[in-house]
Amino acid sequence: MKKTVSFFIIFIFAFTSSIQALSWAFPFVVWDGNVYEVKQEKLGEKEIGEWIGEVKTRPNDMTGEYYGNASNAYPKGTPYYKINNIPTEKAIAVKVSENGWQKAIYSHEAPFHWLDLLQIIIPIVIFISIAILIGLRIKK
Question: Where are the bilayer-spanning segments (predicted)?
Answer without folding.
Answer: 117-136
